[in-house]
Design a protein that fits this description.
By secondary structure, the protein is of the alpha/beta class. It contains 6 helices and 10 strands, in the order E-H-E-H-E-H-E-H-E-E-E-H-E-E-E-H.
Length: about 220
């Protein structure tokens, strides 16, 4: 089985078409207005009308309140991604309130940051490991900054919750990232863009081709 890919931050039919044609298992929409990848709930709902049911539709939220999440659910989402400072208690509350599985993003800037995920293991339905941007990075977002962390920090870890690797991935470095971390699921956004917020169908196709060529590790 090949690596499962999530293409995040989609905003147009061309990008979605490339993701589906290339075999993406997950597609993501950003409901965080400061992001250049943000879409409205109505826009996401329109774009999702053509997505096959076997592709998991993910909505990304950053410290959103219940009203903001409820408004976004006009789009038929399958999974909610919480990419802010949400506590394990908030993750559990969101699951109860909306009846959808939740993915919790963990920001990594040092080896010790990986340990923060332990509080969510078994609470969230998925974990996602992403690079924490440095404080002096102008215009930094909670994710999608094109930065990678040291993949060796994940290489020996075991989790009961399924997880994804994110942060600075491209078609060129995907093989190395998987070899070091043993990830079977990966998430990409800036690595398949021509500029922030503009997905490049050719880069999406290349990334998915690279993932297809890699056998998913057994853990």
């Amino acid at each position: 089985m090949s690596i499962a890919v999530k293409i995040c931050g989609l905003g147009d039919a061309a990008g979605i078409g490339a993701a589906i044609t290339g075999g993406a298992r997950f597609i993501g929409f950003v409901f965080y207005p400061p992001s250049p990848r943000a879409v409205t709930p109505d826009r996401a709902a329109s774009l999702l009308a053509s997505v096959p049911p076997d592709v998991t539709k993910v909505g990304l939220f950053v410290d959103a309140d219940d009203s903001a999440i409820a408004a976004a659910l006009v789009a038929p989402l399958d999974l909610m991604q919480l990419h802010g400072a949400e506590t394990p208690e908030r993750v559990a509350a969101v699951k109860r309130r909306f009846g959808l599985p939740v993915m919790k993003a963990i920001s990594i800037a040092a080896a010790g940051d990986v340990a923060a995920a332990r509080a969510y293991d078994g609470v969230a339905d998925w974990l996602l490991f992403d690079a924490k941007p440095p404080r002096d990075l102008a215009g930094a977002l909670p994710g999608g900054n094109g930065l990678a962390f040291d993949w060796r920090w994940l290489g020996a870890e075991k989790w009961t919750t399924p997880w994804m690797l994110s942060g600075g991935l491209t078609a060129d470095n995907l093989g190395e990232a998987v070899a070091i971390t043993h990830a079977s699921h990966v998430d990409v956004s800036s690595g398949v863009e021509s500029r922030p917020g503009h997905k490049d169908p050719a880069k999406i196709a290349a990334f998915l081709a690279a993932a297809t060529a890699i056998a998913a590790p057994s853990r």
